[in-house]
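Now for one specimen:
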Amino acid sequence: MMGALAQVIYLLLGLIGFPVFAGGESGPGVLIGPTGGYLVGFVIGAYVTGRIAQTLRSPRLVWMALATMLGLIPIYTLGEIGLWIWVRSSFSTLLMAGVIPFLPGDITKAVVAAFVASRRHVRELIPQ
């Protein structure tokens, strides 16, 4: 829940003019533009990841990695829908533009986040 709230705050900061979006962009135009679906997906993805992580009795690296990977699904899904609204291209073209180039980096970041979250000292900081 806190991760989703952090993403909402991120979106609000961008909406009111702080240059926090990709390329130093800000404003409501970014949210209704081609990348807006990805930005909204961040909120849902953080919520999904957090909910899964909270249900784990033993947050081992493998399970935390699975939680972070599943959190990528709403990001890419909403992002691709938003991109399709603007581009109206084929599914394969959209995948090549909005998923495939970013997947290796996103998977790497997800595994690193899972590693950090699975460490005992970090888990003790997270309210249950």
Q: What stands out?
A: The mean pLDDT is 91. The chain is about 75% helix and 0% strand.
